[in-house]
Known about the structure:
Layout: H1 4-10, E1 12-18, H2 22-34, E2 40-44, E3 59-60, H3 65-74, H4 77-98, H5 100-103, E4 110-114, H6 125-136, E5 141-143, E6 158-162, E7 166-167, H7 170-184, E8 187-190, E9 192-198, E10 203-208, E11 214-224, E12 240-249, E13 261-264, E14 269-274, E15 277-282, H8 300-314, E16 322-332, E17 339-344, E18 347-351, H9 357-374
Parallel strand pairs: 1-2, 1-11, 2-8, 4-13, 11-18
Antiparallel strand pairs: 3-7, 4-6, 5-6, 9-10, 10-11, 12-15, 12-16, 13-14, 14-15, 17-18
This protein binds flavin-adenine dinucleotide.
Amino acid sequence: MISYWEQKNFLSYDIILIGSGFTGLSAAIHYKKKHPKAKVLILEKEIFPTGASTKNAGFACFGSLTEILDDLWTMTQDEVLQLVKKRHKGLTDIRKQFGEKALGYVPSHGFELLDEDNLPALDQMDYLNKILKKTFKADVFSKVKKHEKMGFSSAVKAVVENRFEGELDPAKYLNCLWEMASSLGVKILTGVSVVEIQRDSGLIIAENLGKSRIYEFKAGKIGICTNAFTKKLWPESEIKPGRGLILLSKPLEDKIPWKGSFHMDKGYVYFRQIDGRLLIGGARNKDMEKENTTDFEVNPKIKAHLVELAKEVILPGKNLDWEMEWTGIMAFGNKKIPLIQSIGERTAAAVRLGGMGVAIGWQVGKDLSKLLGGGN
Ligand SMILES: Cc1cc2nc3c(=O)[nH]c(=O)nc-3n(C[C@H](O)[C@H](O)[C@H](O)COP(=O)(O)OP(=O)(O)OC[C@H]3O[C@@H](n4cnc5c(N)ncnc54)[C@H](O)[C@@H]3O)c2cc1C
């Protein structure tokens, strides 16, 4: 039962965003900045955001050599360049907006390990540097001299450096967004799962965590920011979930002989060091069908592959004990660009951020805010 006071004060808003990851929070902030008097609410089904935004690896990246070359097979050169530019701009904007310290940002550069099979990518490096020059005004990729000093196994034939990438702490970034949203007067309710929306009328039906109560919210505009979990609210969307696994070691006794954010296997595997520990994740491509899920479980086949890579290739000869593992769920689809679209008179969605949300979430939120009437 709802009281008259609750009905009058808690249930009607100018705009309601569903999902409080990078996208939902960014959209709310951009909208509220344009319309300071608007009543803006975010509904989040968990106690804190639980999709990908605080489960990821924290790579502030815009594409490794082989990832970009791979993209050029499925996208036009112009599309690829636009995406790289958007990712780079997104990273520059959040650093400017929140400050590197608050984000835990370190400009430690990106790197990619090339094995024998991927070595031919080096022949394309000059070409990529040339087409990226307009955006970066300098060469992005270079071959690391004497990479053997980094201590990888002999299976690693070359290492390519990207001097414009870095790494951050994704939960610190989320905290920045959360605090800014709160300071602007955005209301955030957690533990509220939206079960149904009426896209043209703006009605939102939600339930509490224990599923013991149903609430009816009324929104002037609805923004769907549920990324991998979008099918529930927009069943005809073509969003496919993709699970990502991360393993974190205990602190190593020896100093790790490299730093930065590292990719291998066309970006499917990634690793970095954090607080003297190895963080390694990815390898979805080793069991793609099974990873097409929203279940937060660990796939033993993928875990075994990552453990082996860590032991045999990344830190050969080092003692590695594992302390934590977790999964997060990303959203993919038929294109490697975010899907930002109106889907009803009062509703729009901003989803399908793939493995790029750290870089593009802020801008995707801005684009959604504009679509919902938030101005430029
Ligand atoms: C393991 C892993 C590693 C990654 N590494 C990187 C990386 O290094 N760099 C990078 O740029 N990107 C990376 N990503 C991708 C990045 O994390 C995502 O692109 C980004 O977080 C997407 O943000 P989002 O806000 O759109 O979605 P999410 O963060 O998934 O937020 C969606 C929110 O909606 C909520 N929700 C869902 N359904 C409902 C409902 N019915 N009612 C209410 N709330 C609901 C969820 O609880 C969730 O909090 C990685 C992802 C994973 C999983």
